[in-house]
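Subgroup meeting minutes
Present: P.N., E.W., G.H.
Scribe: E.W.

1. P.N. recapped why we're keeping a running log of single-chain structure predictions: easier to compare across weeks, and new members can see raw inputs and outputs side by side.
2. G.H. added today's entry (332 aa).
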Amino acid sequence: MENKNDRKGAIKKLKLLTYASKINVDWFRSKMEDGFKTVFLPNGVERTEYKYGNVTCDILAPEIYASNRVMLYIHGGSFVGGSRRTYASFCASLATKCFCRVVVPEYRLAPEHPYPAANEDIQNVFKSLFTEEQIACSLNADNGENPQLPEIIIAADSSAASIACSLVFNLRERYRACIKQILLFSPWLDVSNCSRLVMTKKISDEIMSGDIVRKSTALYADEANALTPLVSPLLAGDEVLQNFPPVFIQMGEKEILLDDAKEFAKNLRDAGNKCELDIWPEMMFMFQMADDYLHESHLALDKVGKVVTDGTEEKTAIQIQNKPKLERSIVF
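Output recorded in log:
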């Protein structure tokens, strides 16, 4: 278990991920990026800039990856902050643990671009990524026969959980069939005015508060849109949740967001879907991004890597040299 100084340092850093209404949006973005950006990516991960659906993205490629597996990571930031640079180190670690390339889009942010701008950007990225991965899998097939299907993981944290869920809600079955897993870290699942977090005064944990959710959402979506599953996934009924891909939710025991996550997991299971809720004792909001302070951060990402790779390796993860995006590894 981390000592007190480690915990204090972790909390101070993680608070940079949440937007306090008393600060300027530009200042929040700047402080968040300064707190998390890195010059050198861990573990030899290579970063390449590429456009999917006219949205600029980072592609983070580890030295070893499965040729048909790719993760689309939708970064959080209280709807108003976050960037490819902010999340580069964290997503590079995910790429290494999950043996896959990770695509991180620079989607439009509120308040300049309120809902549904971010949702539209992510949908465009996904469809373009899906098409490229299908073509790549066909080209890598033996004599053009029996091509592998692309294996796409959708991952998101905090406020971006609603963007990830809305993407899946809007996808046709042929797209959904290639989504192997949904990964959610400390998700915001109900930001409506009916939410317990929004309605209850002075509710908070070490990092998050109802006020943060309320003020951030006000910059992102109006009250009517916040009451829809596309912004508050917890409000989705069984008919919307049908045939949802398997979901893995990872968060800390001390989060005020935990009750919503438990309810969302139950809703998914009741609708016939798979959902695992992975709760870490004594941990706080987005503890996975405090790996320089908390040993549990590393262990948590190890667990995520096992969830993604379990049962899927089958000779697809091979040694490659990092090369431009359209040059692919060979499947044995």
